[in-house]
Amino acid sequence: MSLQDVARKTFVPATLRNGAALLALIVLALFAWYARNALLLGFGGLIVATILVTAAQPIKRWTPLGHRGAVWLAGLLIALALAGLIGLIMPTLTQQAAELSDALPAALDRVRGVMGETALQDMMSSSALLQNLAGHLTRWSAAVMGTTTSLFFVLVAGGFFAMSPQLHRDGLVSLVAPSSQERTRAVLDRAGKGLRAWLFGQMIAMVTVGAAVTLGTWLLGLPAPLALGVIAGLLEFVPVLGPVVAALPGVLLAMTISPTMMIWTAGLYVLVEQLESNMLLPMVEQSVADVPPAVFLLAIVSIGSIFGIAGVILSAPMTVVAYVLISALYIDPLNGRDTLPE
């Protein structure tokens, strides 16, 4: 057999295999693109499942319940706690939200008065803007309905994931070659631990920031302190941009009182975020990958451009999971720190 025949027999199968692998990657990328909204909802379900499984751990340890029973009980207790909290603060929150919605237009008028004849004033008074807002009302109503449906899907998917987490993990592991399954399982477990640690730290940060803003704005004498605190706590889930957006209502309200109040209010938000960044975040980073703020910012822009506002909300946990996976699969082996599997 000539060298040309040998080369032909070895080169052609390798070329076919590489071409088939490339075609499979292209098909997978196209599927991921067209199914991106379903994948995003699935990731939201993964977050719900992580919360349920974490809450079920002490129940399994302190009661004779099995895994599924503990998950059911954890879900019930979380639902009851949320219902009780909402029932406790909803009357005050509704009243203060109404006060906030009444006060913000006056604050915007104050801003326009300070700025004078500017682009902001022209934009706010233009008929084109009013027409656009009217046109958006129908789409906003449809978006509310879509959000309700998506939330229901996320909760149901999270319940299924939480009931049998190992089944779904092993299903993903079975997609890779048997020689790589043990390592893949260890990498997925590490990503799950990182997500769980980040969520725990983020919940602490949200409650702390919300309580600090509520107390601080109440001491300053701003209207609707509870509403401002709830806004700040919820937006703390969105890194980098969330705290900036959360400060805008409080600063605008302070402008309607006096320039001194505006300075004090801005200082309050800066102080709260500094305490959160220098005291709470280091505790979180002890158990989860230290993702640089620039990476979070780029993730918000890139993920938000693909998934919209839902992607912005979930960009932080998605970035944490991706950062842990990239570190375990590429960065650690490249730098000689490959310790998987454990």
Automatic annotation (TrEMBL):
Q: Which InterPro entries match?
A: AI-2E-like
Q: Which residues form the signal peptide?
A: none
A Gene Ontology biological process annotation? transmembrane transport
Which cellular compartments is it found in?
A: Membrane
User: What are the GO cellular component annotations?
Assistant: membrane
Q: Which UniProt keywords apply?
A: Membrane, Transmembrane, Transmembrane helix
Q: Please verify whether the record's keywords include Metal-binding.
A: no
Instruction: Write the protein's name.
Output: Predicted PurR-regulated permease PerM
